[in-house]
Amino acid sequence: MDNSRALLGLLSVEPTYGYDLKHDYDRHFGRRKPLALGQVYSTLARMIRDGLIQTLGAEAGGGPDRKRYEVTAAGREILREWMFTPDVPSDTLQSNLFAKTVIALLVGDDAEALLDAQRAEHMTRMREHTRAKRGADLVDVLLHDHALFHIEADLRWIELTGARLGELRQTVRPS
Question: Where are the beta strands (DSSP E) in the chain?
Fold first, then answer.
């Protein structure tokens, strides 16, 4: 996920402070991995430099002056372009699991055991995501569904590869 564009989008709702922006980000997108406050402020600094946002002045407080930020017209244009440009699905042609499977075959190790262990790990993660969906709000349910669909695709690949291990072993064997 592009954190800078997500922050720009949140800031497009209304002018706000960096601390409040971090809170909004964490509430919507950072449930498993909140953003560091320093990352928010460094991103805001880059967006100011690039003309995507501007400060509305500073307010004195108990500590350093608080700056309020708002999106510029250029920022709104960039945000709209980002939102409506479709993401290219990842090919993941060089996945770690694929590499491990080929290496296991090349070194004469048990690629089937490797796939079985990976299948078991995927099944464990599926159960965790399925349990986490129970009683969750809609945002969390959708996030867990996204993860589950990716795991299901990996499991289909594991099954297909397991069925083709003999043929793959012949293909990757050094000549």
Answer: 16-17, 53-59, 66-71
Terminal-residue alpha carbon distance, the chain: 42
Interior angle at CA 103, CA 98 and CA 106, nearest 5: 130
C-alpha 50/C-alpha 42 separation (Å) is: 12
Cα–Cα distance for residue pair 61/40, rounded to 1 Å: 20
pLDDT at 64: 62
Contact 40, 62 (CB under 8 A): no
> Cα separations (Å) of 152 from 6, 73, 103, 146?
27, 42, 24, 10
Q: Is the pLDDT of residue 120 over 70?
A: yes
Residue 60 has pLDDT above 70, yes or no: no
How is residue 56 written in tokens?
A: 């509305």
H/E stretch holding 31: none
Q: 59: which strand partners?
A: 66
Please give the backbone phi and psi of residue 58, each rounded to the nearest 5 degrees, phi first: -125, 150
Please state, in angstroms and rounded to a whole number, the distance separating the CA atoms of residues 128 and 165: 29
95 alpha-carbon distance from chain centroid: 16
Is residue 38 predicted with pLDDT exceeding 80?
yes
